[in-house]
Structure to design on (74 residues):
């Protein structure tokens, strides 16, 4: 039985720029890439918070170093 069926096209609002799986433990990873002065939209924050609540690794990174730290859990 379908409840509240709706058409789904593409990715949800705020979906991160980069996504993948950390090989060491199979956790999903979502990275929103921003320049040092880039603004984060509310839908991007909401998406990241939601993914974290599901147990994924997710965050906003403004450099490659930040992205590596996020994935490594530093």
């Amino acid at each position: 039985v379908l409840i509240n069926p709706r058409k789904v096209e593409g990715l949800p609002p705020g979906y991160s720029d980069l996504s993948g799986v950390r090989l060491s433990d199979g956790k999903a990873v979502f990275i929103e890439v921003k320049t040092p002065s880039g603004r984060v939209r509310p839908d991007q924050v909401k998406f990241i918070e939601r993914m974290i609540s599901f147990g994924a690794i997710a965050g906003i990174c403004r450099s490659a170093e930040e992205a590596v730290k996020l994935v490594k859990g530093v």
In short: Helices lie at 42-53, 64-72. The first helix runs from residue 42 to 53. Residues 41 and 68 are 22 Å apart (CA to CA). The chain has a mean pLDDT of 93.
